[in-house]
Each structure stands twice: as C-alpha cells, then as structure tokens.
Amino acid sequence: MASNTPIVTGISPKEGPPGTRVTLRGENFGQTASDLISVIICGCDCTLSAEWKSPNKIVARSGPDKGKGDIIVQTRYGGVGTSTVQFRAYHETIGPTKESAVWVEEAPFHALSWSRKSLSPTSYQQEDPLGLSVEGNENKLPEDDLNELFPNGSGDLASENFNAGWFLLEHHHATNFDDLKAGLSFLKRKVDSQKEGQLSFLKSNVGSVIDQLDMLAKLKEKIEHDNSGGVNLTENVELKIQDSKEEAHKLFEEVLARRERADATRNALAVLSRFKFLFCLPSVIDKNVQAGDFDLVINDYARVKNLFGNKDIPIFKKVMAEIETRINRVREILLKKLEDVPPSVEDHIKVIRSLNHLETEGDPAWTGIECYARHLVTTMNDLKDKFIILESSENTKKNKSMSKMNYSDIQGLRPPRILYVENLIDLMEHKFPDLWKLGQTYFGRELHLTPDTGKHKPYKHIVMDVIERFCNLLRAAILPHTLPRSNQNRHAYGTWSNSGLESVILWLPHCLGYIRACYSSLLRIDLPSDALDIFSKFIFDLRFYRVSTRFRAAAESIEALDKSETWAIDINEKYGGITELPFQFEAKFREVIQAIHDSVLLGEVRETLLLEDPNTKKEMSALILQLFRSFASVLEKLAFSNADDQCERLTVISQLIYSSDMNKFANFESISWEQRLLAVMCNCHYTCEVVLPSLVKLMTSQGYQITEEFTTNCKEPFVMLSHRILEQYNEQKCDPLVGTIEPSMYIPKFDWDTTFQPTDIRPYAKEIIMNLIGVRSELYRVPLNLVEKIMFKIVDTIAEELARLMSCVKVFSLAGSMQARADILAIKQSTKAFTSKKAARFYEESLESLPKVDEQGEELVRKIVAHFASNMSLQLTSLT
C-alpha cells in the first residue's frame, strides 16, 4: 500500500482567491477517475470540482478558506496521500473598477474625512496615511515572508485584517526612523483636525440650532393647548407646511436651478474626462495627419472601434460618425499617395498596409500593384519623349562629326540615344524588382490579408507587359529593324531619327554590357520563364546585330585593302609570287572572329548560343562568306583596274614580253599589268589553299560548324576570279604573239615556192620560240600548275595558227617544203613540254599540209633541227 500512496509534488498556480483553477501534479492519483475519492486544498474539500486527467494530473478549484495549507489527495487503493508543496488562499479586495463574478456590496468608501464621498473614481486609491513618499521603496519584501510574520494579516487599509506592521514593512521598509516619527505626527494632526470638525460645525451654527429647538417646543405647547379645546389642527398644519414648502421653493428655485446646471456641467465634465480619448480623437486625427503620422491614426482608430464601435449611446454614435468622416479623408489621402507611388517599395507596402488596417473598400494591395506598374510605364514613356526631343534638338553638324569618330574618341561624349538606353535600363533595374516584390508580398500573404487567387493571371500579364514594353522601347532606339511593322503600338515605342543609328553602332558593346547587367539582376529575383524569354530574345537579337555590324565593318575594312597594296611580291616555291594582301585579310578575319567569340558568340547565363539557332547560323554563314567575297572583289579590282589603258599601250611584241630582273621583290612603279594579273592569281590560289583552311580550322575550334558546301562557296569567288585572270592573261599574251607570226613569216617577201636550199630555221620560228621563252620567264612567280595552264593555252593557239597558215599556202617547192617542215619540227620540239593533244593534232595537220620530201630531204631537215637545238640549248631549257 505504501508504494501506491498519492503524493502531490507540484501545483500551478501556487496561490489565488477562492475558485482558482489549480493544476495538481504528482504520482499515484489512480488509474481511472473512479479511483479518486477526495481532494482537499487548505483544509477545504474540493472533490466536487476535481477533474481526474491522468495518474499524474488532477485539476480542481480552490475553496473559500484563507491561508496556506497542504493539498491532500485520497484514492481508493493508495489511501490518504501527502504533499510536498502548499497552496496559499487569499480573499481579494474588490474595488469599484474590478470585475467580479459575485455580487459585492458597494458600500461607499469613506476616507478619513467626515462622510465626504468623492465623485472621482480615483478617490478609491488612498494616499499614504503618513504623508511620506514611497519612491525609494521599489524593492518590496516578498509576500510569503510577510505571511509568515503576520498570519492572516493584510497591508490593505480597507481590509478587516489590516496590520500596521505589515503595512510599514510593505511600504516603508527602507524609510528611516526619523521620517516614520514625522509621519506619525502628521497622522495625529490629521485625526485631531477631523475630530474638531464636528464641534466647530455646531459652534458656528449654535444660534440656529437653539432657535429650531425653541420653535419645536412652542409648537408642541400650542398643539397641546389647541387639542384641549377639541379643535383638529392637523389639516391646517398640513396646509401651512405645504405653503411653506412652496414659498421655500420660490425662494431657492433659482439657486436650485443653478445647482442642477452645475451638477449637469459637472457630470458632463466627468464624462468628458472619463472618455477624453473618444471626444478628442477627431482633432488628434487631424493633427497626426498633418504630421504624416498615419500609424498613430491607425492605432487610435482600431482602439476606438474596439471600445465604442458597438455602443448605442447617441453621443458616442455622433462622435464615431465624425471619426469615420476623418478616417474616410485619411483613406483618400493614402489612396492618393498610393497613386503617386512613394519613393521606395517599403513605403508603398506601408501605405497598402495602412489602407488595409483602415478597412478600405476594395483591394488596396492590388490597386497598389497596378499603380506601381502604371507609374513605371509612364516613367519609361517620359524618358523616351525627353531623349527624342533632346536628340532632335542637337546640332546636325555636331552629330555628323560625332558619327565619324571612333569608339575611343567618344567614350566621354555619349549620344542622347545612348544616355536614354542607360537611364531606361537603370530605371528597370531599380524599379522592376520592386514591382515583383509587391506581387510576391501580395500573393505570399505578407500584407496580412487573403489575396485574390484570381489575380494571378492579371499580375502575370502586368509583368509580361512591362518587360515587353521595356524591350520594345530599347528595340525602337537601337534595333528598330527588329520591331514588327505590323505592330499597332509601334509608334508608342518612339520614332528615332535614322541618322543617330551610326553612333549607336559604335556604342553597341557598351549597351550590351548595360543590358546584360540588368538581365542578371532580373535573374536573381526568380522571374517566370516566359518573362525571361522576352528579355533573352532581345539580348539574342542585340548580340546578333552586334555580330552583323562587326562583320559589315570588317567587310568594309577588307574592301579598302586595295589602298594598302604595295605589290611587294614574296616568291613562294609552292604558291608562287604573293603579296601581303592575303596575310592582311587573314589577320582582319581572325581579329573579327576572335572579338565576336569573346564578346557575344558564346553568351552568358541563360543566353542562347547564336550558333544554336538555325536562322542565325545561316545568316552568320552568309556574313562570313561576304568577307571572302569582299576580299575577292578587292583582288578583282586590283587585277582589272586600268586594264583598257594597259591593252592600248601593249600593241607590239616587245611590249608583251617583260624582261624580268629575277628580283624577289618588285614595287608598284616597275610592275607591269601582266605581272599584276599573275600576282593576283597567285593571291587567289594562296587564299584558297592556305588562308581558307587556316580560317576554317579557327572557326571550327570556336564552335562554327563548317560544311563542305560552305568551304566550296568560300572558294568559288577566288576560283572564278583566277579563271577569269587566266583567260585575260592568255588573251593578252596570245593575240599579239599569234598576230606577229604571219607578218614575220613573209618578211622580206618570202615565198614558199623558193629554190633556195634551207640551212637553218627561219626567223619567225625563232621569234615564236623566244616569245614563248619570254612568257615562261614572266611566269616564274606563278605556281607550276598555273604555268602549265597558261603555256598549254598559248602553245595550242600557236599550233592552231601554224596549221592555218600552212593550209593556206598554195604552192610549196621542195626547198620550201623542207624549210616549213624544219620550222614546224623545231617549234614542236621546243614546246613539247607544253604540247597538249590539241596542239599535237594541229602540228600534225601542219606537217600533213606540206608536200612529201625524199630521204635526203628528211636528213637535211633533221640536221637543221638538231643544229638549232644545239645552238639554242641554253634558251630551250626554260621551256622544259
């Protein structure tokens, strides 16, 4: 049994008045509620109010007893228990302002003054009877210690158990003895003065009191005398008394009226004093509004609504109506501030919260979002109009001179359009995150209101509209060609002058950096993908425009390379004589490709690679191809400039044959047009065979997907130009050379029907061979494959001309036939290295046109040809 004895080890609270809900904690309180027999708190049975919660917890209400005592729990199996804690019960002093669950006799509180009841509720708070200050006695003695010293005592002056010792220790434990003696003297004087008050009242009114007593005595004698006569004077007395009353009222009517008015005024002042907060609130609201302190207005409004909102008293309703009028005016002021948009989003949110606290109709938070977005769009449009006017007002000459400067010259002279781009981006970068924060605050319930879920779609539309407008405003300024012409709002994005676009091109890297910084800031606030895609598309277009302008500038720079040509020819064993132009072209190409790769090709965070878009890839291929075509046009210009003048001057063979000095380098003044043609042809060949593969390798390493078709397209202009130069060169060489064969053949008045025996080949044949040697010497700067093309073409033409001339001879003598055969065989043998099937056929036709000779004649022909070959062996080595 001892092990099941209930024990109370903790209570909460530890003290309280009767009826306090006390929670008991301990052990062995029974397994069920039926095991609990009784609960005794401070000697009072509280079983009826006890609630069994668990074997370790019971809740009960304290009884009416006072003082400290144990808490004893008795159970069916554990018997009477014990307690390690105590509960202190006390009776509260119920004042006039304290709520009470029971009826309290509200006997008027009598202070030490004689039967004088105070009208003010604060009179129940007594002053210190000793007249001493208690400011230095903040640290009071614990009440438990006072209970031990004065059991069942109290320090309350109004309590029946008032104990002076308790009072002194509670309020004056730190007061020195001299002050306590002075307080005692003060108390004695006050009591004596109150006792003297009744005597002084009687002394000052003793005459009236005696007269009243005498009158009552006389009245008594008179009545007794009249009664002896048998006459009833009661009725007369009553009438007289009534008359006296009426006369007294007449005498004091004015005084009583003034008294009633004074009481009414006093009561009104008491009401005003008691409800000062309510009656003064309208003027307080006005003052706080003027001071801009809307938080105080909101707090006061909430307080007055809580205290007087449901009161039916007419005066309260009238004041509340006046307060509502003031609050409506405050709502209008705050709504106006909401439309004007405060300088910071925090102030904007504060205004929205103030409107919510003031129970404004509608949805102030959503109104704030719409106002903020509208303000942002309006500010964008104002910037656009401002800078369009600024650009149009600038001096035209100044704009032209600025457009001719390079980027490094105008870094400190930003055009108005660039300033507009910077200001617009700064506005977006600083204000748009605030708009997004407003929406997140609204839908995230941070404004202490229930958001309208149906506003998600309109809010997304607002965000998308702001971003789209921002991007289109930028497009109108720096990328006007990317705005759809069918867009009905195109004019709303601004109409900028075309003349300012030239300066914009120079500032594109600067603009791209600004826009990317803004884009990065928007990425940090976690915008939806749809909104970011609009911005990303604009950056993509700007990057491609930067690429296209850079390529076009490079093309213009390449097209001006003809001005830097010095015709300093470098002889390359494999590719012939080339100038510096292919190297300059390759350097410019590499420069632009590397610059584009470093700045815009790869892209940054969440930017699409330019080469991933099929259309962009196709256009970039066209731009790169244009660079090659531009260089081909430069070579074409160098090859065929002043070609007509050169053809007019080159009318004789001596002008056709150039005596080479075999120098490795030649300058422009000493180079002939034919040499220029050959140099350009070599440049074409070198560009196709060396420069193009090198550049293709560079582009491949930087992500370009180079196809065979693209490489072929890049080679095509150079191949066509080389073919054209080859034809022009052959024409320039063949026509004069072939044109001299017939005149030379019949000088001086030679006839094939001759009788002179031939001893050597004729001069025209030697001239043909020397002209070929001269042409071959001029081709020492040309690659071997090009040399063969040129020489084969010239030999074909010569062979064809010889066949024609031989077929036109009417009569050949035997000597003439041997001479012609020797000439043709000498030319054929000399040109065998460059004799094609076509030329061989023409040679055979020439020989077949000649009459047959005998063996002696054939032997003579062989000797003549051998003698010629021996004498001309040194010269003929150039044709091998």
From TrEMBL:
Q: Which GO terms describe its cellular component?
A: exocyst
Is Ion transport found in the keyword set? no
- Domain IPT/TIG, residue spans: 6-87
Q: Which SUPFAM superfamilies match?
A: E set domains (SSF81296)
Q: Does the keyword Manganese apply?
A: no
User: Mind telling me which InterPro entries this protein's record contains?
Assistant: EXOC2/Sec5, EXOC2/Sec5_N_dom, Ig-like_fold, Ig_E-set, IPT_dom
Positions of region (Disordered): 1-20
Lineage top rank: taxon: Eukaryota
A Pfam family this chain is assigned to: TIG
Q: Where is the signal peptide?
A: none
| UniProt domain Exocyst complex component EXOC2/Sec5 N-terminal: residue ranges | 127-878
Keywords in alphabetical order, please. Exocytosis, Protein transport, Transport
Biological process (GO) annotations?
cell development; exocytosis; Golgi to plasma membrane transport; protein transport; system development
Matching entries from PANTHER family are given as: EXOCYST COMPLEX COMPONENT 2, EXOCYST COMPLEX COMPONENT SEC5
What family does the Swiss-Prot or TrEMBL record give for this protein? Belongs to the SEC5 family.
Q: How does it assemble?
A: Component of the exocyst complex.
Q: What does this protein do?
A: Component of the exocyst complex involved in the docking of exocytic vesicles with fusion sites on the plasma membrane.
State the protein's name: Exocyst complex component 2
Give the originating organism. Menopon gallinae (poultry shaft louse)
